[in-house]
Amino acid sequence: MSMYRKLLVLLSAGACLYTLTVGAQETVRLGTPVTEEQLEGFDLIAEPDGSGFPSGSGTARQGQAVYEARCAACHALDGSGNSGATVLVGGDMQSEGPPLKTVGSFWPHASTVFDFIRRAMPADAPKSLSNIEVYQVTAYVLYLNELVDLDAVINAETLNAIVMPNADGFIDQSHLH
Amino acid sequence: MTEKKLEQVAGNGLINRRHLLGMGLTGMGAVAGSRVLAADGSGFEIPQWSRQPGPGPSAYGAPSSHAIALQRSSGFTNPLYPGGGASRTPLQHLQGTITPNSLHFERHHAGIPDIDPAGHRLVINGLVRQPLAFSYEDLLKYPMQSHVYFLECSGNSGALLRGAQGGDVQTLHGLVSCAEWTGIQLSTLLDEAGVSDEARWVAAVGADAASMGRSLPLEKAMDDVLVALFQNGEPVRPEQGYPMRLFCPGWEGNISVKWLTQLKLTRAPAQFRDETSKYTDTLGDRRSLQFTFPMDVKSLITSPSGEMSLPGAGLYKLTGIAWSGAGSIARVEVSADGGRSWADALLESEARDKALTRFSIPWQWDGGNAVLQSRATDSAGSVQPTRDTVLTARGTLANYHNPCIQSWGVNSTGEVSNVYV
Questions:
Q1: What domains are there in chain B, each with its CATH number?
Q2: Which CATH code for domain A60-161?
Q3: A23, A39, B220, B323: which is deepest, by most CB within 10 A?
Q4: B209 and A99 in contact by Cβ < 8 A?
């Protein structure tokens, strides 16, 4: 922050405290302006419309080694997991009895696979994968679910073009409030 | 007071709540047996603690060593899922409506981050006129509001949907707490950044290791949502989001994102993992309800409750808590005969919007079998449903958002347990 900006912040803070004392309706404005460029490494939100995705791409073939090294301890080599909470593959929402909910059977958006891996996985070292590795592992998880081929190039565009099996399986309740 | 004078107002021994208001109730037993000092007729003596000075003031107080040791209960820990899990509030031991900060329930998705506020920023970006970053020190200078609000995990009481057997009220329903939250109206900060016309949602992200995210409709964000910095008067506890959390009154707990570090204005929901794969309710037809935000009207008898035992037939005070995400509590009814007859309970606390309300009613237990239930009605006129109603409406696959009436069975030996009627 430049001295000039610092001075401005201090001045505006002082002015606001003054107006708060004098007239309670005055507005405090202490946010520091930032640019989206500054937030590039900070904003991890990757949306279904493709916004927020970093450049780059990956294939399942490339992702296999990363997956086996970083993911398989919990999710198993074939994605079958070591518990109901870590299974990634299989299931059918129309099955008899309680359906097994996995990325393939339940998740409505492919963007969520990239978004979640990038922000929260692997669970013992979140955000330790590069963006390229996240694309590769995303491709591999989708490949294990038979949703993409081994050599399909997964990037922001191709990923979000994938129609997940349960894409129509959700009812938006957000209007009820 | 003789038994003859007690006005019975519903089946199986429920007594008019007015007996709790000045009419007096002698002989009312505590749930655990009590000893009367000098009950053998000997003279009362000055106790030892009145004969010597005690320790002086302390820097940060602690409960009496003689009081029951109030403890959150925590579930299993999974070594492959570091920091995940939940702890539950000991509702059976609390009175009033405020949950002490040390006992507020927890749910973490990747543990509690150790945040130095000097290095923490709250960023507002996306569809705004000017992206902004706020430091903790900045935010402390803003005007703040204080409100008492409940917070309930939408997974609370889910065990009942799965037919749980046994369990105390803490285990079955301890993912609800209530505190005074103090913070800045989110709309103030969003207005400063200047929300664009096309924005409809706010994607909120925490600074924990999972960068837990949830999407919030802009309409709610501009209404009553707070960026909370204080909890019951002290800085928000680390497990509740220090140095700041989102607080969305009346809505499922998970959307009140802890360790709040980013708010991004968007056209549509971000479709985070925790609003698609989790926190959604699958119906019988296998479609799943998504973005079910408000927590429904609900109540629980907290004493007597599961795993307690009544020392013997006699007069008891039934008490519990009620709340609604749609407003305040207008009425709580209690049944001692499994829902065949109902009596109005006394509301012991003022009717507050989206906060816990304490209720109570006297009950003359005859020593036989009883099923104790409570049923709340909120200011919007919604009535708490039975478990059968919930299961009929949604099927048996949903895991979240269960507001159903809790039934506590009392058997002839006085043991209290979770039952289904």
A1: 108-160+175-287 (3.90.420.10), 298-419 (2.60.40.650)
A2: 1.10.760.10
A3: B323
A4: no
